Amino acid sequence: MILADVKHAVRGQSWVRYWRSPDQPVEAMHASFHREVYHRHSHETYSFGVTEVGAQTFHCRGASHVSAQGMVMIFNPDEPHDGRAAAEIGFNYRIIHLGPELVRDVLSDAQGRSYGLPLFTSPVIDDPMLAAALRGLHATLTGGATAARRDERLTEVLTLVARRQASRPPGDPGREPVLPEAFRSVRDLIHADPAAELTTDELAAAAGASRFTVYRAFQAAVGMSPSDYQRQLRLRRARALLAEGRPAGDVAAEVGFADQAHLIRWFSRHYGVTPGAYQRAGRTPA
Fold this sequence. Notes:
single chain; alpha+beta; ten-stranded antiparallel sheet; 43% helix
């Protein structure tokens, strides 16, 4: 496997290196950003990051947070957040994305018993031991280690992070939140065809409620507007198609973007890397 290395000449000294596993839901990014801004989004994965230089600020769980040098960031699956540099110097950070099923399987295997999905209650943690472990895991994933060594290191670090920071006890699957009917109706309509162009009037009609009620229900349930939610579904589908090797132009049309330029812009604002770099990151060199 190789790293996709992208240099952005137009934005100071910003750069991105991205890696993804071709056979596991594991991805890793090492990046330096200055004026770039992450649009509000979430990941299907658990995300574990370490700020190495500078500081970044983001809004998550109804509050603003700052991750300074040496601090750890942890996002649960589908947890909305944004992000930008907290100062002119920008920031440098590493982040690892792990699929929930993989996290559950690894922790269950390590504990020798069923382990429910962990819940992390603080998005920013000052934990030097955990920060060092995550940096080591990132280096193992992206540094050409064998598959066996990557799996070993992943088990070690996931066990450590769950023991030190998880708030949900082992085996507790948690409870599904009670969601308003207006949200469920509109969510089902969007999921039926994420590429479809839906008007606010159509969403309101599906919910049998006002446009404001629909917006408020979405904000309460997932922390973003219906349009942002639909765009995120399109981008997640785009990631899957790009990983299959599909051309970016074809992907843009299939998932509902006006053209390839729109896909590139929104993909970068959500994931910090272009579609082309994401696609190259999973290829094995000849």
